Amino acid sequence: NAGVTQTPKFRVLKTGQSMTLLCAQDMNHEYMYWYRQDPGMGLRLIHYSVGEGTTAKGEVPDGYNVSRLKKQNFLLGLESAAPSQTSVYFCASSTLLPGLADFANTGELFFGEGSRLTVL
Amino acid sequence: SQQGEEDPQALSIQEGENATMNCSYKTSINNLQWYRQNSGRGLVHLILIRSNEREKHSGRLRVTLDTSKKSSSLLITASRAADTASYFCATDTGGGNKLTFGTGTQLKVEL
In the prediction, which pLDDT does A74 show? Predict the structure, then answer.
């Protein structure tokens, strides 16, 4: 019962390098999200997807691109990494849009364990 | 700017005591959720309260919601060392498409 799996778990990049974070979920969830977590800032939404083939910008999308070619996968790309992108990245998925969540089918977000990225 | 702000930022209590965390938010919501994060791990959903509810219970957790004050509180009764974690409130925003998290309360329960 894997749930939400993120790879890699740790990565160190040099400024200007590119990389892709992979998020895979095995719960057949429609909705997927990428957040970043920085000390004192809580979690901030980068991009999200409301279904296969769709993506939308969140609160802090600059410097990131995403793709949802398959329902179970949500990729987060950094084309030219900057030190400001040093962070812990979390992927999450849900069965319902947050606004529709209720006690019967909570629509809660299921999170991966995080990917710690350092940009030197 | 953050939709949710938790208060206090950090809380240290003794095992057996109750822990209360507060969350304030800015815009109207359909529901508010609380999540827990153990150190170095992902977030885990604890409880959800809808905008037309005032109080909910789940085990040792009690959540209240005051939509007129745009605030919520999470009470953990009879705390245990295993409750040591960060706790975040989250509200649906962007027309309900997104979940926006607060800055979190770091709870430490000492033996």
Answer: 98
Is B55:B62 a contact under the CB 8 Å cutoff? yes
By C-alpha distance, the chain B residue nearest A30 is B97
- DSSP output for A54-118: --EE-SS-TTEEEE-SSTTEEEEEESS--GGG-EEEEEEEESS-GGG--SSS--PPEE---EEEE
pLDDT at B62 exceeding the cut of 70: yes
Q: What's the CA gap between A81 and A15, in Å, rounded?
A: 5
Residue A105: what pLDDT?
58
The list of chain A residues with pLDDT below 50 reads none
**Set of chain B residues whose Cβ sits within 8 Å of the Cβ of A59:** 100
